[in-house]
Amino acid sequence: MIDEIKQTLNASMSKSIESLKNQLTKVRTGRASASVLDGVSVDYYGAMTPVNQVGQVSTPEARLLQIQPFDKTMIAAVEKAILGANLGLTPSNDGNVIRIPFPSLTEERRKEQVREIKKIGEDARIAIRNARRDQNEVIKKSEKAKEISEDESKKFQAEVQTVTDKYVKQVDEIVEAKEKELLSV
Prior knowledge:
The chain is of the alpha+beta class. It has helices spanning about 1-25, 75-85, 105-145, 150-185; strands spanning about 40-45, 45-50, 55-60, 65-70, 90-95, 100. The strands form two sheets. The chain has a four-stranded antiparallel β-sheet, with helices on one face. Strands 1-2 form a two-stranded antiparallel sheet. About 60% of the residues lie in helices and about 15% in strands. β1 and β2 form a beta hairpin.
């Protein structure tokens, strides 16, 4: 039974960590990163297609993102999709490529970003604690149904807490690394 609980716990907590990493890639740090465009789709002949599939995305400079569409007729559509995504970026094109300059972040904007990072981290911690609560309820129900003893219940809950602590520590490390990255730019 504990193996099943641990599997479920690890699966849901791993999803929380992946979600956290995914959300943090969208937080701009002042450096150009192609991951900022994740989730931005463009209407490519009637099908919504991610920007990175309609053109080559590169970072020729630390603060510049460049997109070279495979089909030059898509330049306006890609530019419009980036503007419509509200990323706080202003693309410009020269007819062949789209250039997206990343402005340096002001001190106020950095502090705002740090608050946003901490909030995202806290949301991940909450998701992890919810997973812990769900599995503890499974253990308590099993105890009430006399499937496991009270001692086993306490032991299982302690193991669930150990796994939870491991994942919360992981969240803290990821958030701290992102804060350092943001403040060191």
